[in-house]
């Protein structure tokens, strides 16, 4: 047998080595065939498959070199570093150091590159490597490192020191140190006059031009440009000459050199270059003329020049198309501002808002960023999306704080009634721009009006009075009148009315005051006096307030009549705000009169006005809702939401749409849209109204995904930390039950206390059977709340590891903490004691389990019965098996118990009872009964 085993092992080893040898040959052949891509893949497989192979080193050597050839220098560096560390042969070590030096140079790791170069012992290899490193630094534009390397080579006259002079010249050229560039390029020409002659001449001429020696540069460029046949550097020289003579307006010379390069790619470059020169001179027509002469129509540089010239010439749509065509080019970043600016000029506000996230994905200057943010903010304001407008004006003020940007934020805060932010911004304005007069009136007026609308007339009064202490303004006095009326401060009203500088203003303010007091006839009388005075400065305000007055008096027919009379006297553009409110009051009046068609005709006019579209469309939908035409209203609400979802009325429209679904009995759609609303508007004040569904409903239905979704929504919609914590704990529990571990660590991290985080981490690791669970359990032992849980977990862990003493220790801790330990712990203690042959304690534990009559009662009783059986304590064993025999719906247990009882009866010579049990066993399990056949 031993001999056979040895032969078998030898055979298996030979198979293994044969497999390795064949695999190595196969990989080696790929290298010989120069199929490096396949060789690399197979080499990696070989290294993993045969970690102990004698070919490991040579295979790694090949793999590293292929990575180097394929320019995967990071991978090459990793492998060469390992080879270098283990290599003992100096020549091979030098080779690896050479590769490491070059790889690190190409990775721009300057210090590492020089370190490995200096580790090379062989002088020739060192000098070749050092030059290669310098060249690599230059190629990676690491000019400072290249400069040091080249200087060392030249100073020490290493091999290639002459070539290094040219490299050093190029380095200085890159660093814009043109004098030194010229010096070293000249030194190179002296040492190697026939090498790279044209390139060196070109670089020297370029350096002269860059340092301002234009005339000397011209002679050198002309010498190069007139080489026949033309070369790469002669054409490049011609381009410089075209630029120089264009700046000097020497058209004959420009034409001459253009003809020299006609039919080459440099000709197209020249056209673009001349076009760019005319752009800098703001001669955009001439620039476009040159751009059009280029055949390189897909060149992004050319397209950008064309687009910019068209933009400056006011041809916005053509320019926009060209700027947009640069999306996948390096010029797209430069085009972004112009795309936004053109769209704003073309009033494409919705497109600007839709594309606003682009600025997060591109790199533009801070000036362009500020301008784009301003365009987005203005566009949002134009379409009535005040929330978005405020967000962007706020960003603008954060990066470019000035009074205009701050005023815009204050204006939007006042319109949105964001009182906390308005308070902060108003204080900022007074601290930073206390001497401002340009925006002061509007800042105080809008802020005061906002406090008044928000139900704080006292604060509004303070703000108006602060302004009026320094200045006199009818609008501010008018607003102050409203606050004083609200607070019934009639004496003060008279005091501030006296500030008005003319009789018309006094009458106007009296009319406003009377309207505020609900004295509508008196207000009308005062407004008529203003109109009779012929004061045109107040006429439009009086027109609007007469209509407001009739509307407040619920004299809707008169409101309509007055409104329609005045509309023709207002300019929709110049008086846009008053005009839109006039349309609104007429529409609302028709609405209150139940004349919905007429109301809709006015709301349609509002909907056609830029910045008021959403309000007009919402009111049209509302008119159908009021008519109880819920299907029509629903479709229109949905349209408003889809088009203006980010606005206040967009949110309101979605809410009303969901209500129409409820009213029409469309339950499925109601549920779907309600859930979507919570996603779209997680902070909406309408969320409580929108849904009454609870997480428990989903849990009870077994839909854990919906339950988690609901919990997340609930957390997003509350500031109550206890609710958030409870929701997070439920989500973790649901995910553990479902074995859905995605984002579970994120949820655990969100729990506020270390205790809770450790507890749920322990549950997570336990489900995953991750050994990290032990550390979490041990940490939990310090917390009374989770000590029982942790001790049970540790007991189970060590029980499964068969470390019974530790298992018993932690189960014992559990029993100490929990005065009424559950049957599971007692059962496990019984098992542990039984395995240690501590049968007395095991019986005590099992008895404690089956005394509870729980799920483990039968198992514990069976274990105890078997212990008694082993101890030949027939009396106790028989008692327990008799009880087990009586257990219902467990055929195997019954059969086993009968078998034991037959045996005990026979031992007692109670054949009659034994026979009775035997007959029962035959019916239940004939095979098991067979062993007792001889007794009966």
Automatic annotation (TrEMBL):
Residue ranges of TPR repeats: 162-195, 268-301, 580-613
Protein source organism: Fusobacterium vincentii ATCC 49256
Gene3D superfamilies in alphabetical order: Tetratricopeptide repeat domain
The protein, known as: TETRATRICOPEPTIDE REPEAT FAMILY PROTEIN
Signal sequence interval, chain numbering: 1-18
InterPro entries: TPR-like_helical_dom_sf (IPR011990), TPR_rpt (IPR019734)
Pfam families in UniProt: TPR_16, TPR_6
Keywords per UniProt: Signal, TPR repeat
């Amino acid at each position: 047998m031993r001999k056979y085993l040895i032969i078998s092992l030898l055979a298996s080893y030979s198979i293994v080595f044969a497999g390795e040898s064949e695999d190595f040959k196969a990989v080696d052949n790929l290298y010989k065939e120069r199929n490096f891509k396949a060789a690399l893949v197979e080499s990696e497989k070989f290294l993993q498959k045969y970690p102990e192979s004698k070919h490991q080193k040579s295979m790694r050597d090949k793999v590293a070199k292929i990575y180097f050839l394929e320019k995967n220098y990071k991978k090459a560096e990793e492998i060469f570093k390992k080879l270098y560390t283990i290599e003992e042969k100096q020549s091979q070590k030098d080779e690896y150091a050479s590769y490491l030096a070059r790889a690190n140079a190409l990775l721009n790791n300057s210090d590492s590159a020089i370190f490995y170069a200096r580790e090379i012992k062989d002088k020739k290899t060192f000098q070749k490597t050092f030059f290669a490193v310098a060249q690599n630094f230059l190629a990676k534009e690491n000019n400072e490192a290249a400069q040091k390397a080249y200087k060392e080579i030249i100073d020490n006259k290493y091999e290639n020191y002459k070539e290094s002079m040219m490299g050093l010249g190029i380095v200085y050229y890159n660093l814009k140190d043109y004098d030194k560039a010229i010096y070293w390029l000249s030194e190179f020409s002296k040492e190697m006059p026939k090498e790279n002659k044209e390139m060196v001449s070109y670089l020297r001429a370029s350096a002269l031009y860059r340092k301002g020696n234009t005339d000397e540069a011209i002679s050198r460029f002309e010498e190069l440009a007139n080489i026949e046949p033309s070369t790469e550097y002669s054409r490049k020289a011609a381009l410089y000459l075209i630029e120089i003579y264009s700046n000097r307006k020497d058209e004959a010379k420009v034409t001459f050199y253009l003809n020299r390069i006609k039919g080459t790619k440099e000709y197209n470059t020249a056209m673009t270059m001349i076009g760019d020169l005319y752009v800098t001179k703001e001669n955009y027509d001439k620039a476009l003329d040159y751009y059009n002469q280029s055949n390189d129509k897909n060149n992004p540089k050319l397209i950008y020049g064309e687009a910019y010239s068209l933009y400056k010439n006011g041809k916005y749509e053509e320019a926009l198309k060209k700027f947009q065509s640069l999306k996948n080019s390096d010029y797209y970043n430069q085009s972004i501002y112009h795309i936004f600016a053109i769209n704003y000029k073309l009033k494409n506000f919705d497109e600007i808002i839709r594309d606003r996230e682009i600025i997060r994905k591109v790199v533009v200057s801070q000036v362009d960023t500020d301008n784009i943010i301003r365009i987005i903010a203005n566009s949002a304001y134009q379409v009535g999306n005040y929330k978005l407008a405020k967000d962007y004006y706020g960003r603008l003020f954060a990066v470019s704080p000035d009074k205009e940007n701050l005023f815009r934020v204050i204006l939007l805060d006042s319109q949105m009634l964001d009182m906390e932010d308005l308070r902060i911004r108003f204080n900022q304005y007074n601290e930073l721009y206390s001497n401002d007069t340009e925006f002061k009136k509007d800042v105080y007026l809008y802020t005061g009006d906002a406090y008044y609308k928000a139900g704080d007339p006292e604060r509004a009064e303070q703000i108006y009075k602060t302004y009026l202490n320094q200045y006199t303004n009818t609008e501010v006095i008018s607003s102050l009148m409203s606050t004083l009326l609200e607070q019934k401060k009639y004496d003060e009203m008279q005091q501030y009315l006296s500030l008005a500088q003319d009789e018309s203003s006094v009458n106007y303010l009296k009319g406003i005051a009377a309207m505020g007091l609900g004295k509508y006839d008196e207000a009308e009388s005062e407004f008529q006096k203003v109109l009779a005075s012929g004061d045109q400065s107040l006429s439009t305000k009086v027109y609007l307030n007469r209509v407001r007055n009739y509307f407040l008096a619920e004299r809707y027919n008169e409101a309509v009549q007055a409104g329609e009379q005045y509309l023709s006297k207002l300019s929709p553009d110049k008086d846009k705000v008053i005009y839109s409110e006039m349309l609104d009051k007429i529409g609302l009046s028709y609405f209150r009169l139940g004349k919905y068609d007429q109301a809709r005709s006015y709301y349609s006019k509002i909907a056609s006005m830029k910045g008021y579209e959403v309000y007009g469309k919402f009111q049209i939908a509302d008119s159908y809702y009021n008519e109880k035409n819920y299907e029509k209203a629903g479709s229109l609400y949905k349209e408003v939401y889809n088009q203006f979802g980010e606005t206040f009325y967009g949110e309101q429209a979605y809410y009303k749409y969901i209500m129409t679904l409820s009213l029409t009995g469309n339950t499925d759609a109601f549920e779907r849209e309600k859930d979507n609303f919570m996603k779209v508007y997680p902070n909406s004040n309408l969320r409580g109204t929108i849904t009454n569904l609870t997480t428990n409903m989903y849990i009870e239905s077994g839909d854990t995904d919906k339950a988690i979704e609901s919990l997340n929504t609930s957390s997003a919609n509350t500031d109550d930390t206890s609710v958030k914590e409870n929701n997070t704990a439920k989500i973790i529990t649901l995910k553990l039950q479902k074995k859905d571990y995605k984002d579970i660590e994120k949820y655990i991290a969100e729990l506020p206390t270390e205790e809770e985080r450790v507890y749920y981490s322990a549950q997570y690791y336990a489900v995953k059977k991750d050994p990290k669970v032990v550390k979490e359990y041990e940490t939990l032992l310090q917390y009374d709340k989770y000590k029982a849980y942790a001790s049970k977990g540790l007991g189970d862990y060590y029980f499964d590891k068969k470390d019974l003493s530790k298992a018993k220790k932690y189960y014992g801790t559990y029993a100490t903490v929990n005065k009424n330990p559950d049957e599971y712990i007692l059962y496990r203690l019984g098992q542990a004691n039984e395995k240690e042959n501590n049968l007395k304690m095991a019986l005590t534990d099992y008895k404690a389990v089956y005394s509870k009559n729980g799920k483990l009662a039968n198992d514990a009783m069976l274990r105890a019965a078997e212990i008694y059986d082993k101890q030949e304590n027939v009396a106790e064993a028989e008692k327990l098996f008799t009880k087990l025999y009586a257990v219902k719906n467990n055929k195997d247990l019954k059969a086993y118990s009968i078998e034991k009882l037959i045996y005990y009866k026979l031992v007692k010579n109670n054949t009659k009872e034994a026979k009775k049990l035997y007959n029962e066993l035959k019916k239940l399990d004939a095979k098991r009964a067979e062993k007792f056949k001889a007794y009966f």
